[in-house]
Design brief:
- The protein is of the alpha+beta class.
- The chain folds into three domains: 205 residues, Phosphoenolpyruvate Carboxykinase, domain 1; 276 residues, Alpha-Beta Complex (Phosphoenolpyruvate Carboxykinase, domain 3); 81 residues, Phosphoenolpyruvate Carboxykinase, domain 2, CATH 2.170.8.
- Helices cover 27% and strands 21% of the residues.
- It is built from 16 helices and 30 strands.
- The strands form six sheets. Strands 11, 12, 13, 14, 15, 16, 24, 25 and 28 form a nine-stranded mixed β-sheet that branches.
- α15 packs antiparallel against α16.
Length: 610
């Protein structure tokens, strides 16, 4: 086919131009458009999406420059069972990933890609994950036939001409191919219906050796915004392993004491553990301040001074709307007051948005996420999908830290790991060494509730480092990489490692810890421990605060008895934990690092002597 360009090619990178034209020959779009990342481009795309019926423009007085989309019911979340790590050897993907032989998968997908963009425009999106030009950042180029993807990538990454300048004539980039997988016949349009392919034709494929991402059939979130989980975690984790750095599913926050001392903390938490709330926390201790560097992903490299520096590779927040409110996360609410893309939330009669858990009753009749009239207390089902999202600019967050775009990154003093554990795991404990901290990260998990039908209630679902769906290679090798990163460092400059658990309950199901802003009290102790202060005792599981070490000034809801329970060492509970950890570790076979086996044996021995 002869390639039709809608605008001028803005680069002399021959490899990139050839790659674009090769895919255009396969996908057969109406034309090719190179994105420049400008506001004018964003506005034009938004107008096109509204005119097509795919987007609803919200009331500009209530929610300026904001749009609402409703996706297809089959296209509402990441599809883990259709997500693949297609490494050349199955052993390199490991036991936690879906693996298909890359030659076989490429053949299957190339058949699907033939003519898949007929009747549509192919958009070329050059983007930077991280501040443009940072030595920690990486460049990607995504091809897509979705204007929804383009405007989301505008918000979530740095798109456009400056990226191509840094890429230059022969720079390297991660090649990202995406299509909604729904070609249009001549004169046909989507008629306002979200375009996607049936579930059995959806594929999100990662090729670690060639650093490629191929996505087919889904227009939604992490399946289509290929800079997010696909590049920033699955492919970047492979690059980090090869190059000696860390690509992690972690928030980054800035903590400032009343004396003006600053520390930066990174934290990994499985879903539903309050990660975004912690990243945007408003402290309840007078004089302390928390600011956000990032809420989801951290890339970290050692600086020349031997310190570990982190950037947030993203430029926006792709947050879960249901449950977000002025009480749970006011800063997230403020971030989405303008310039926001909403997906699968409900629409109010006056052109605003609403979702379950927003903090107030539905204001009259709504249009739900499926496009139907919905009334609270009368209609079946939820008004907003449980995974409904907002895409908001990080720069609009009231608590965004001034350093959030520093290309050098910020120095990390502490790592936090945590899960949802109603018993056994105390409010906070600290590792006794780097390897012990890696052990703590490797056993992260949340207790399964009765609502999860695939596992027995009370079972711990392990999500090591909160990276289970996102590690692009064998997780046994990933654990060893963490051990190596610590062993090669200046030990005096390594971040301290902590495990937190906001979710302890009493026997009758009452929360022992209030959480939210009061988590700043635990952060204060962590801050003190990083400075070699903070009262602690050594226990079989690590260093734990003394009964009076956590600042409870002004906190009347937590009694002395509650605190004693929160900081108690449950010897029998931890002995039971040992069997569960052994079962978890068995999956990794000979790939499990010897150092972690030694840590587990050490824990078991200490518990037996306690």
């Amino acid at each position: 086919m002869s390639v039709k360009y809608i605008n001028a090619i803005p680069t002399k990178n021959a490899k990139l131009v050839q790659w674009v034209e090769e895919w255009a020959a396969i996908c057969q779009p109406e034309g090719i458009y190179w994105c420049d990342g400008s506001k004018a481009e964003y506005d034009k795309m938004s107008d096109v999406l509204v005119a097509s019926g795919l987007a609803t423009r919200l009331n500009d007085k209530k929610r300026p420059n904001s749009l609402l989309f409703r996706s297809d019911a089959s296209d509402v979340a990441r599809v883990e069972n259709r997500t693949y790590i297609a490494s050349e050897k199955q052993e390199d993907a490991g036991p936690t990933n879906n693996w298909i032989d890359p030659k076989e998968l490429k053949k299957t997908m190339l058949d699907l890609y033939q003519g898949c963009m007929k009747g549509r425009t192919m958009y070329v999106i050059p983007f930077s994950m991280g501040p443009v030009g940072s030595n920690i950042a990486k460049i990607g180029v995504e091809l897509t036939d979705s204007a929804y993807v383009v405007i989301n990538m505008h918000t979530m990454t740095r798109v456009g001409s400056k990226v191509l300048e840094v890429l230059g004539d022969n720079g390297e980039y991660v090649a990202c191919m995406h299509t909604v997988g729904k070609p249009l016949a001549a004169g046909e349009s989507d008629n306002g219906v979200w375009p996607c392919a049936p579930i059995e034709k959806k594929y999100i494929a990662h090729f670690p050796e060639t650093k490629e991402i191929w996505s087919f059939g889904s227009g939604y979130g992490g399946n289509a915004l290929l800079g997010k989980k696909c590049l920033a975690l699955r492919i970047a984790s492979v690059q980090a392993h090869e190059e000696g750095w860390l690509a992690e599913h972690m928030l980054i926050l800035k903590l400032t004491s009343p004396e003006g001392k600053v520390k930066f903390v990174a934290g990994a938490f499985p879903s539903a553990c309050g990660k975004t709330n912690l990243a945007m926390l408003i402290p309840t201790i007078p004089g302390w301040k928390v600011e956000t560097i990032g809420d989801d992903i951290a890339w970290m490299k050692y600086g020349k001074d031997g310190q570990l520096y982190a950037i947030n590779p993203e430029a926006g927040f792709f947050g879960v709307a249901p449950g977000t409110s002025m009480s749970s996360n006011p800063n997230a609410m403020h971030s989405s007051e303008k310039d926001t893309i909403f997906t699968n939330v409900a629409l109010t009669e006056d052109g605003d948005v609403w979702w379950e858990g927003i903090g107030y009753k539905a204001p009259g009749k709504l249009i739900d996420w499926k496009g139907n009239v919905w009334e609270e207390g009368k209609s079946e089902g939820a008004a907003a999908h449980a995974n409904a999202r907002f895409t908001a600019k990080a720069g609009n967050c009231p608590c965004i830290a001034p350093e959030w775009q520093d290309p050098a990154g910020v120095p990390i003093s502490a790592f936090l790991f945590g899960g949802r554990r109603p018993s056994t795991v105390p409010l906070v404990h600290q590792s006794t060494s780097w390897n012990h901290g890696v052990f703590m990260g490797s056993i992260v998990g949340s207790e399964v509730t009765a609502a999860a039908l695939d596992l027995k209630a009370g079972t711990v679902r392990r999500d090591p480092f909160a990276m289970l769906p996102f590690c692009g290679y064998n997780m046994g090798d990933y654990f060893q990489h963490w051990i190596n990163v610590g062993s090669k460092a200046d030990q005096s400059k390594l971040p301290k490692i902590f495990f937190v658990n906001w979710f302890r309950k009493t026997a009758d199901g009452k929360w022992l810890w209030p959480g939210f802003g009061d988590n700043s009290r635990v952060l204060k102790w962590i801050f003190e421990r990083c400075d070699g202060a903070g009262k602690a005792i050594e226990t079989p599981i690590g260093f734990m605060p003394t009964a009076d070490a956590i600042d409870r000034s002004g906190l009347e809801s937590v009694t002395d008895a509650d605190m004693k329970e929160l900081l108690s060492l449950d010897i029998e509970g931890w002995k039971n934990e040992i069997a569960s950890i052994k079962e978890h570790y068995a999956k990794f076979g000979t790939k499990l690092p010897k150092a972690l086996t030694e840590e587990l044996n050490g824990l078991e021995s200490r518990l037996n002597k306690a």
